[in-house]
Design goal:
alpha+beta; Immunoglobulin-like; 5 domains; eight-stranded mixed sheet; six-stranded mixed sheet; 3 helices; flat; disordered N terminus; cell adhesion molecule binding
């Protein structure tokens, strides 16, 4: 029973340990360079590690120990083989192996001890090496149409893994098709280093379209390719084409270059160019240039062979042009309220795109100056575009008007120690503001859109009339405002407060007097009524008189009560 329990416990411990071994994480090192193999990739904090130990798999499950490091101690080298002088450890417990070679392609394991736990992190290492270069040897001198000919051998030396080579024609990959393309590949491994040399041989059956084609080879997935090869293919001309430069757009003033391209090999060197009815023959060249073309150059152009004029090519050429005229332009000065009529003329080879800006800010539409205001002043630019041609025209508009006072008002400061006078003016050029009283200038607003605001503070000791006068070279204006003294305003405020207090006391006194009178009359009425009830022996006439007196007394009481309520 105890043996069974012990065995069960051992099995559980083994399962726990196995669960702490991570799966293989392959890394790729470069041949001949420093190989860095990470340990635990930061899964365990450095301060929690007691022991770090590196080992590798020699084969058949036999471990080879490399080095060990205990906490707060230096690294101890355990290796006795060639790794003894090649291994070290960095501060992150990563294993460093100098001058990586193919024999380093194996599994390395980092063992980490933390307290009572042991963790293992195996890493599978692969060593890669780029071939030094790609070379083409055994090149063909020329290609014959329809015949399978060896172009050359592409060789990639000393690589791991062996390089895969692809042939290209004009940057497009070639694949063996059993007919016009044949590719044979051989791989040889160097016994001393284990590195491989790949040789790819291309056989190709040329076509007429291959004239001028560029052939090269490239190592797949690697930044290596050979130099390009050109091969001579001879055949007669069957097609001719007229090329034009510039290709996208020909603008008035550009140089127009015509090029006659024939597909024969060797290519013809003598051509006829038909320039809108004019014939020009060129020798030892296939181009003709017309300098500084005008809009009249628009039309049909042709080129042909001198020895076979029936073989020709035709192109229609359009010269793009654009002329604009803006009137008026330059510096324009107008009075506020006047109108400004703009004349815009466009002469172009196609549809024009038009835009406007004012002071470099884009406008949504063409400005309309039926009634000019000061805010219309500024620099206006008209931009017209046709194709890649852009023309601009501009004018500087200044709207002027005589200086005018728009408003003049006053305010008392919050502390009651002075008054602020504000004069708002309009006009252009900028109005000069003056006051008929000396005061402290509080500020002047920026002159924007013909408007300006000027403020001063004053401490008037007597009632006075203040004038604000604005002036520019086109006129002047003035407006007056009455300003009372601060002393008078303070006295009036106190007098108003005193009168309000006296009136209040008077009203209270009247109300109290009426209330007292009402109480006295009411008391007298009550006493009289009581005596009247006791004197029933009086005559009827007296009773009648008493009733009349009671009625008058009641009316009197009612009247006093109403006054008291008021």
């Amino acid at each position: 029973m105890h043996l069974l329990s012990a065995g069960y416990a051992s099995a559980l411990l083994l399962i726990a340990l196995l669960s702490q071994v991570t799966s293989l994480e392959p890394i790729i090192g470069q041949y001949g360079e420093m190989l860095k193999i990470p340990c635990n990739s930061g899964a365990i904090k450095a301060e929690d590690i007691a022991i770090t130990k590196w080992k590798y798999d020699k084969g058949d499950g036999v471990p080879g120990y490399l080095l060990v490091k205990q906490k707060n101690q230096n690294v101890s080298i355990s290796a006795t083989d060639e790794y003894k002088v090649r291994v070290s450890m960095d501060k992150n417990s990563s294993l460093l192996i100098s001058a990586a070679k193919l024999s380093d392609q194996r599994t390395f394991t980092c063992m980490v001890v933390t307290g009572g736990d042991v963790f293992e992190y195996p890493v599978n290492v692969l060593i890669h090496k780029l071939p030094a270069k790609l070379e083409i040897s055994g090149e063909a001198e020329e290609l014959e149409i329809g015949r399978l000919t060896k172009l050359g051998n592409c060789v990639a030396k000393d690589a791991n893994p062996p390089a895969n080579i692809t042939w290209f024609k004009n940057n497009k990959p070639l694949e063996a098709d059993g007919k016009g393309i044949s590719i044979k590949v051989s791989v040889v491994e160097e016994s001393s280093t284990g590195l491989s040399t790949t040789t790819s041989t291309l056989e190709y059956s040329a076509m007429k379209e291959d004239t001028g084609a560029k052939f090269k080879c490239r190592a797949d997935g690697l930044p290596l390719e050979s130099s390009s090869m050109n091969f001579t293919i001879t055949y007669s001309t069957e097609n001719i084409m007229l090329e034009v430069s510039p290709q996208k757009e020909l603008k008035e003033g550009d140089n127009l270059t015509l090029k006659c391209v024939a597909d024969g090999n060797p290519a013809p060197t003598n051509f006829n160019f038909h320039l809108k009815g004019e014939l020009v023959t060129v020798e030892n060249t296939d181009t003709y240039t017309i300098a500084n073309v005008s809009r009249d150059a628009t039309g049909e152009y042709k080129c042909s062979l001198t020895d076979d004029t029936s073989m020709e090519a035709t192109r229609n050429i359009t010269v793009t042009y654009l002329d604009i005229n803006l009137s008026p332009s330059g510096n324009i000065v107008k009075r506020a309220g006047e109108a400004l009529n703009l004349s815009l003329q466009i002469d172009s080879s196609g549809k024009a795109e038009v835009s406007w800006t004012k002071n470099n800010a884009k406008l949504g539409k063409q400005p309309n100056f039926t009634k000019l205001g000061y805010s219309d002043s500024g620099r206006y630019e008209w931009t017209v575009t046709v194709g890649h041609i852009t023309r601009t025209a501009s004018f500087d508009l200044t709207v002027e008007g005589p200086a005018v006072v728009k408003s003049l008002f006053k305010n008392r400061s919050n502390d009651g120690q002075h008054k602020v006078l504000t004069c708002e003016a309009e006009g252009s050029p900028k109005p000069a503001v003056s006051w008929s009283i000396n005061g402290t200038v509080l500020g002047e607003s920026p002159f924007v859109n013909g408007k300006i605001t000027h403020k001063i503070k004053v401490v008037p000791s007597a009632n006075l009339t203040v004038h604000c006068t604005v002036t520019n070279r086109l006129g002047n204006d003035s407006r007056a405002i009455n300003v009372s003294s601060l002393i008078e305003e303070v006295r009036m405020d106190k007098q108003d407060q005193s009168e309000d207090s006296d009136q209040t006391r008077l009203v209270v006194g009247v109300i109290v007097g009426l209330l007292i009178a009402t109480l006295v009359i009411g008391l007298a009425y009550w006493v009289y009524s009581k005596k009247s009830k006791q004197g029933s022996w009086k005559t009827g006439e007296k009773e009648c008189g008493s009733s009349e007196e009671e009625k008058k007394l009641e009316e009197k009481v009612e009247e006093n009560s109403q006054k008291a309520e008021v």
